[in-house]
Amino acid sequence: MRGGHAAAVAYTLIECCRLPEVDPIDYFADVLVRVGSHPASRVEELLPANWAKRFAAVAEDNLVLA
């Protein structure tokens, strides 16, 4: 049962990346590193559409350098 719930969450996040045209791989690579130190009071910044406005350029630069 938990596996189905986890898959539903993952698929929902992937689908949420489509509307703002966010690459899910770039999104997950950045957010999974960022989430541990990001303030819980500002978690809405990590939603795909908001992330694209605030962090996408930085994430792309970091991926190119890696």
Helix content: 55-70%
Q: Estimate the mean pLDDT confidence.
A: 87
Instruction: Classify the beta-strand content into a percent band.
Output: under 5%
Shape: globular
Count of DSSP E strands?
0
Looking at this protein, list some descriptive labels.
mainly alpha; 0% strand; 66 residues
Short description:
The protein is mainly α. 68% of the residues lie in helices and 0% in strands. The chain has one domain.
What does this protein structure show overall?
This protein is mainly α and 66 residues long. It has helices at residues 2-18, 24-34, 48-54, 56-65. It is 68% helix and 0% strand. It has one domain. Helix 2 (24-34) packs across helix 4 (56-65). The termini are far apart.
Topology:
Elements lengths: L1 H17 L5 H11 L13 H7 L1 H10 L1
